[in-house]
Each structure stands twice: as structure tokens, then as C-alpha cells.
Protein: ferroxidase
Organism: Octopus sinensis
Amino acid sequence: MLSRRLSMKLFRHLRRNNFAFSYRVITQPNIKVYGLTSKDLEFSTPTNSLQYYCTDVKNGLNANEYDRIAEETLESLLESVESFEDIDNCPEGFDVSYSSGVLSIYLGDYGTYVLNKQSPNQQIWLSSPISGPKRYDFIGNKWIYKRDGTSLHDLLQKEMTAIMKTDISFMDCAFN
């Protein structure tokens, strides 16, 4: 976590270099810095050179906002994944279910994806048979894996495209 003094110093540096962002975000008492490129962020620069993103620990969401956003995300993914049955290369044994904040995608021999809400952490957790477990935080209106900056939708799109052997898109899903 950054100290208030360091966060104000970072704020002044970003403001001098014409970064546009909300003052409220940078002055929260619990700030973390994550190494992401500016294209993944809600603010950008002419040179696209920003290497850090500042956000408060709880993503600035109250419990109701988090629940609404997480539910909307999982429900939109469910709608998109349900259409996979129409794909010629859909794996045998394909099934999808959603109940109590848990989305399960069964892909036969390829394994099972499980996405679930983690309300105490305000995260969505993913268990992937290809890339393993990941925890996504809501940053810049997207679900982002902090360790590598990948969005939930981008990872699912990449892995599902490889499994289905056809282009899969989650561009129409909520919070993509």
C-alpha cells in the first residue's frame, strides 16, 4: 500500500504529465499500485506509457454494486456460452449451468470451467482446465487479473477459441 504522502506525490506527477483520472480514486487511504499498461486502464496518455494503475482495495464498490456487476457479468457470459451448442466443433458432453453465483461450463474431455462470485473480496474467481485458477478484480470497468493484467473476457475468448476451433467472441458481454 502507498502512504498518503506517496500517493499525493504520484497524483502530482500524473497531473503534471496530463493524465486524466478521478482525484477521488488517488486520494483513498488504501491504495495499491499494479503494473498494467495504460490501454488496460480507464485513463490514458498520448504516449500510452503509464505503467501503474491506482485503485482502492475494495474497488470503490459497495456490496450492492458489486453484486449487481458480478451477477450481470456472469449472466451475460451464460447467455453467450449457451450459444456454443450451435457450433459444429462443440465438444461432446457440453453443458452449462448457473446457480447461486456459480457458472459452470462443462466441455467434455477438455474439462470444466467454473466461475464464481467471491463477495467478501469483491472478486470473480475462475477455475480453468487450461490456465488454472485466477482471481479477477473489477478495475476500470473490466474484470482484471492483477498478476498479468489480462481481462476475464479476453482469457475466456482465447481459451474457448482454441477449444472450439473457431472464433469465439465475448465482446457483447457485460463489462468486457
In short: The chain has a mean pLDDT of 78. The domain at 63-164 is CATH 3.30.920.10 (Metal Transport, Frataxin; Chain A). The two ends are 27 Å apart (CA to CA). The first helix runs from residue 4 to 16.
